[in-house]
Amino acid sequence: MKRKASARWQGSLRDGRGTMTTDSGVLSATQYSFGTRFEDGKGTNPEELIGAAHAGCFSMALSKILGDGGHTPERIDTAATVSLEQVDGGFAITRVHLEVEAEVPGASAEQFAEAAEKAKAGCPVSKLLDAEITLQARLAG
Fold it and tell me: pTM for the full model?
């Protein structure tokens, strides 16, 4: 399986503008800039998209692990906070904090915590990132 996305940047780092597009069309010339990445400008940025990808990947992995254990989740809500920091004269994504709350009928808190840890370690986006990944998992209900 292969997925494709593209970006176009025009101008200097601070004053330039760019767009990102995905083959699926979910992003279509979606605006990004210095202001959307390092300030509070309107638009997206790479870190926000990595956060969305990580939250989605983790949620699907957690659903599979829970299902394999005989517990089908009613819902899984995951937020991913991506930290971009200045390191060694450049910038790096240094950590991602995953925060998940789920409704999983029949699952104990221990089963849920174990499944969440497995999903954190095993989801493909987690494996891709060279960053500290932390997790806060809450079983609702």
Answer: 0.93
